[in-house]
Amino acid sequence: MYTLLKAHEEYSVKNGIVAATPERVMLDARTEAVFHSDEIYFPLYDENEIGSILRQRVKLGFYRDEMTDEAFKRVVELTAKACDLRSGIYLLRMAGIEAERRASRKVEVEDVERVYKGGAKVFLAKSISALNSDERETLKIIYSIKGDVNSEEIFKILKAEVNMSYTRFYEIINKFERLRLIDVVMGRKGRGMTGYIIKKYDPAIVMAALEY
After folding, report:
1. Mind listing the pLDDT tens digit for each residue in 132-163?
2. Structurally, what CATH architecture does the domain formed by 47-128 represent?
3. What residue spans define the domains of the chain?
4. CATH code of the domain made up of 133-210
5. DSSP one-letter code for 179
6. In this structure, what are the phi and psi dihedrals at residue 73, rounded to the nearest 5 degrees?
7. Which of 104, 64, 73 is nearest to 91 (CA)?
8. How far apart are CA 179 and CA 53, in angstroms?
9. Which sign, positive or negative, has the C-alpha torsion 140, 119, 128, 148?
10. In which band, very low, low, confident or very high, does the pLDDT at 192 lie, cut at 50, 70 and 90?
11. How far apart are CA 12 and CA 3, in angstroms?
12. For a designed S-S bond to 143, which of 51, 63, 165, 203 qualifies (C-beta 3.0 to 4.6 A apart)?
């Protein structure tokens, strides 16, 4: 990548690089210095799209009626929450193995829930691995505070600790919403309105994923 990015200096050519990746790519310092990227976020699949894709996987990977409708619905819900189709495919596979382990001919909701507890941290860690240091610190602060989280309070902490600008903070919060790590709802505070950050995961799982 470095050679391509510097080609204009030696060969007088105009070029560019388009990188498509579900996770943040770690580059060496020399390449980072010249690779000034603009991030473009593609829209996430909704639950209907996720269900359609995973239904095809079920048809290919399981015998007919081997997975209950309730179990499949739960896989779709958890996949939408994780924002990663790979987590859905993982859940299908591991839930099938779990049903086999207990000598059952059907995959039940209990099988999905059991394997999800162990796999949630792994797939959440994959999403978090795409975050830079400022974003990881912001997520850590959000999930370390008990109860309702006021966006203004979070910004004050970040401004004091890492001198973060409000524009940058706003960009990070929007990114977290796109990744479905949080929800932001407007609520009343005194005589005005403010944004409240709703955590979408168990704080213990997020904190473990940050250390993963």
Report:
1. 889 999 999 999 988 778 888 899 999 998 89
2. Orthogonal Bundle (1.10)
3. 2-34, 47-128, 133-210
4. 1.10.10.10
5. T
6. -60, -40
7. 73
8. 19
9. negative
10. low
11. 13
12. 203
